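DM from R.C. (forwarded with permission)

"hey, sorry to bug you on a friday — could you get me a structure for this? deadline for the figure draft is monday and I only need the backbone to look sensible"
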Amino acid sequence: MIPPSHASPNEALTRALKAQAAALGFAACGVARVDAIPQAGARLAEWLESGAHGEMGWMAARADQRRSPADLWPEARSVVMLGMSYAPREDPLRLAAAHDIGRISTYAQGQDYHDVVKKALKALARWLVDHGGGDLKVFVDTAPVMEKPLGQAAGIGWQGKHTNLVSRSHGSWLFLGAIMTTLDLPADPPARDACGSCDACQRACPTDAFPAPYRLDARRCISYLTIEHKGPIPAGFRAALGNRIYGCDDCLAACPWNKFAAAGAANRAFAARAELAAPELGDLLALDDAAFRQVFAGSPIKRIGRDRMVRNALIAAGNGGDARLLARVTALLDDPAAVVRGAAVWALRRLDAAAWTRERAARWPHEPDADVRDEWALAEPA
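My reply, with the result:
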């Protein structure tokens, strides 16, 4: 029940809404007007024109709706922006030197955030309809909504130099969700950029994916390369991937504001599953489709499919140099998926030059895929 107040009805409603959001597990809640990000559309257009989105064609396909909430839903008057903490309990970079372990980005080690955040959003949306009326729509990551600029406009954080939202209270560890409503709710003041002269996130990037502060070239980003990119990992980035097999935490983990993020405040659903906190590369290289679906059920990782995961694990195996993986790498030279065979060629070359030379003589003349032939065509290792 909304407590009595001398303020306007919608001010009292908004205060009660924020209290309900906190009760549902949201760490941050703020309100922005639908016209609060007038510059976002131009910035998006410039970014798309540069090609920095790579293969993410969905970014361009609905750019006209993405540039403003009013373009997506003209009847909307307010946007409620929400953040749910997934602050890690352990150092995300602690396994950087492990040769036989694959590293999965913190956000993907627990339950699929799409499911968790959307469930809470829907519960909050029902509460808002019950107490305030109006029509509304909820969004979590998969719709053409510019959550990060809207999050800054709603005051829950600012878009940092790594282009992700940064919070004074929760660092760089917030999942974002949005509720658009036809209600005219009082807007919160926008958050002020507090990055200052710090460039820790820029310096932390292993692939120099930031051509300038606040600008990301996704084509160079390890998260993009391991998740969105469907073909062979470009040769120039493979060594930089290290043992990262799904995403990359480096720029996020470098943010000094993380020191205020309390891991205990994070939703328990995002706690790392044992099999995803430190997966062994040997197990990942042995995955078939059925095993992949079983291991990654309920995880956002399931979206990339078995072939991309094994491709990533092969790059990690090649970087790690663990000879115990040689048999499994060699077996994948016969994989039905060309992207896996090509990565196996590269990994074998790194693990055992003599074995690579023998296999090359037998396989290169009969390989049907052009990308895999290109891998075999590399000069013999010194």
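R.C.: lifesaver. The chain has a mean pLDDT of 94.
me: no worries. Residues 9-279 form one domain.
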